[in-house]
């Protein structure tokens, strides 16, 4: 058993920990934007293939104090890289800085690479090469103040790249964030799921994959560990066949968007994710959308302000609030927005509030329980209207 680390987005640590427990990881411990756990090689493959809310699964190699890049170079050169890379391999180094001692992640990556290739050159006269796009081995450096952690990145490309999104539309959500929003909502796949303003369809596709119990990585072409020296294809094949979620084939997922190009992109992405025809997709404004449903969970990600001035945005959010109050009594709704001012124009009292990040944009993720009484708005005289 080795310590492993799954990294994630701010606010998704708890749902990632639950996912890890579900797949049988041991000693699951929540950290900042990451969850550590214990596992063997099979668990490392399993975490990459099955998790929906992890960005990367790292295999820690060493950790040491380092005051500057030269300290890092010396410590890196001492590590037994020949156990994990050959001279013909291609490497890439990614550095994450959480430190005031270091200014340039690129310079740290450069010195790490120097330490590795100098070790090889001095011992064999030959050295591995660098390939930032398609390496056999990604090395992850995390500098927290003066503590340097060195890990092997078993994921390769970030795990949000599921492989089903061939058609992006404006401002698509990161797939890890979309899955995290659904898991945070506690959606029960036997209940209807509504995704108005669906854009390219990330939320409804992630919901469909959860309902069908399909692993997060099912459509990926490759994972970093498949290019490692110790890769065991039969072991990975057996892990690809494992399932951890109940399968709900009769799920009800409805999605819509006002824009035709958005619907076209969503349709294409539904096709690549094997969900075309299983999710009801309509071109409609949220204000006029009629699903015929009487209950369900709504998750939506309205525009935050790009291309809309503040007054239009306030009006849009007022309309969303009015529509929720008028047409969705008996439903529950979660709204993600990067514009806290606009969110106030929903004029609904959130029952829960979470902070999330959509890329660099700090967002609020609010829950509204639209029970019959929530429509009553108290006016200044104290009378209800
Ligand atoms: C931030 S994007 C959603 C992105 C989506 N979550 C994804 O992953 O692609 C907001 C979407 O709201 C849609 N939209 C804006 N106003 C709308 C309205 N009144 N009714 C329905 N859709 C609307 C836009 O066309 C756009 O696709």
What does this structure look like?
By secondary structure, the chain is an alpha/beta fold. The protein folds into two domains: about 150 residues, VC0802-like (2-Layer Sandwich); about 180 residues, Vaccinia Virus protein VP39 (Rossmann fold, 3-Layer(aba) Sandwich), CATH 3.40.50. It is built from ten helices and 15 strands. An eight-stranded mixed beta sheet has the order 2-3-1-4-8-7-5-6. A seven-stranded mixed beta sheet has the order 11-10-9-12-13-15-14. Helix 9 links the parallel strand 12 and strand 13. The radius of gyration is 24 Å and the shape is elongated. About 40% of the residues are buried. The C terminus is likely disordered. Bound molecules: S-adenosylmethionine (SAM). The site of S-adenosylmethionine has 20 residues, from helix 6.
| Strand tally | 15
Tell me the CATH superfamily of the largest domain: Vaccinia Virus protein VP39
The structural domain count equals: 2
* Rg, nearest Å: 24 Å
- The stretches of 5 or more residues where confidence is low (pLDDT under 50) are 376-385
Report the sheet-strand fraction: 15-25%
CATH class of the largest domain: Alpha Beta
> Span from first to last CA?
62 Å
3D shape: elongated
Instruction: Return the average pLDDT rounded to an integer.
Output: 93
Question: Helicity range of the residues?
Answer: 25-40%
Count of alpha and pi helical runs:
10
Structural class designation: alpha/beta
Largest sheet: 8 strands, mixed
Ligand catalogue = S-adenosylmethionine
Query: What is the topology, as strand order, of the major beta sheet?
Result: 2-3-1-4-8-7-5-6
* CATH fold topology of the largest domain: Rossmann fold
User: What's the architecture of the largest domain, going by CATH?
Assistant: 3-Layer(aba) Sandwich
Order of helices and strands: EHEEHEHEHEEEHEHHEHEEHEHEE
